[in-house]
Amino acid sequence: MLTQETRDIVKSTAPVLAEHGTTITTVFYRNLFEAHPELLNVFNHANQAQGRQQATLANAVYAAAVHIDNLENILPAVVQIAHKHVSLGIKPEHYPIVGEFLLKAIKEVLGDAATDEILSAWEAAYGVIADAFIGVEDSMYKEAREQDNGWNFFKPFTVVRKVQESGSITSFYLKPADGSNVPDYKPGQYISVRVLIPGEQYTMIRQYSLSQAPKPDEFRISVKREETNDPNGVVSVYLHNEVNEGDTVEVSAPAGEFLLDTSVTTPVAFISGGVGITPMMSMLETVANVTPDRPVVFLHSARNESLAAFGKDIEKHAAALSNIKTRTFYSGGPDGVITGEILKSYVDVTGDAYVCGPVPFMEAMIGELRKFGMTEAQIHYEFFGPALQLSNA
Prior knowledge:
It is an enzyme of class 1 (oxidoreductase). NADP(+) binds at residues 274-279. The record marks 84, 382 as: Influences the redox potential of the prosthetic heme and FAD groups. It catalyses: 2 nitric oxide + NADH + 2 O2 = 2 nitrate + NAD(+) + H(+); 2 nitric oxide + NADPH + 2 O2 = 2 nitrate + NADP(+) + H(+). The protein folds into three domains: 4-146, Globin-like; 155-251, Elongation Factor Tu (Ef-tu), domain 3, CATH 2.40.30; 268-382, Nucleotide-binding domain of ferredoxin-NADP reductase (FNR) module (Rossmann fold). It is built from twelve helices and eleven strands. It is an alpha/beta fold. α5 packs across α7, α6 (94-110) packs antiparallel against α7 (116-146) and α9 (277-290) packs parallel to α10 (311-319). It is globular and about 65 Å long. Helix content is 42%, strand content 18%.
């Protein structure tokens, strides 16, 4: 337990963290990787290069400082991050290393302002927060390991089929290389794929939504090919160009909190932009299989027709549903974008909405859904990469 004095010190330094947080976390990652380059096998290099990981960690540290009296307030965020950690293979022994370099970064950036008293308070607070993560992640690892066909960390999978879905998206059908089946998963979850690209020093891990309803013997991911010169594109370009049927990749067990509630039959709207359609395909297929009378709206936005994926799959699943409205919008064409008026005309305010896509698209959609009366509990969403704060959230 933290003493009241420790809590008071941590809370009093929250404004300083808000001001210097990204500088502190930038110094933290630089020094961490200089001392422990092996951790580059775990961290996303592209998010590092773009500053997204630094900003996310700064937000997390600030949130912990603000809520130090009631850390249960940040438990939902802890669970979401813990899912990503488990999917990446973060282990308990990583936490003391991170704590050491976070405190050193606070001292380096704040200088004399970071007194021994402040550093001691933050060391104690970090210990409590780290223990919370380790405990949550231990439960997740146990559940992943003990479920039917489960495992921890990474396991070899064979690419059994590779199917082009659009001008930029290709699906990879993956089966365990040892011939076993795969664990069940919830529609909306993701897996991590780990590859060692020829010429690269460190392995790279990317998380991809599972894009079909659960099957006993395979996973399907659908990967958007990013631009070759985009740091985010290294793995997707490698998968598209170099990984073929018969090749092997390493895969983690399914994880994630962006889940379709399959126990209800109230109206549901799936609203996606670009490759954000991938978790929606798993959800749509599941509704078609499990609750075919559930009222469904499926709205998707793509730049143009050549980039719109899964047209035939959507038609097939729609045919199994008794009450569905689907529409695809082309932002580069006469249909334009999904507006608030369109959402209002399609989405039943008494049901639930699931939103996934690029950050600006999601901010716009979530903002419009809130405007016409949907509550936080009714709107479900997931960002790609490190969690970013929603404006207006």
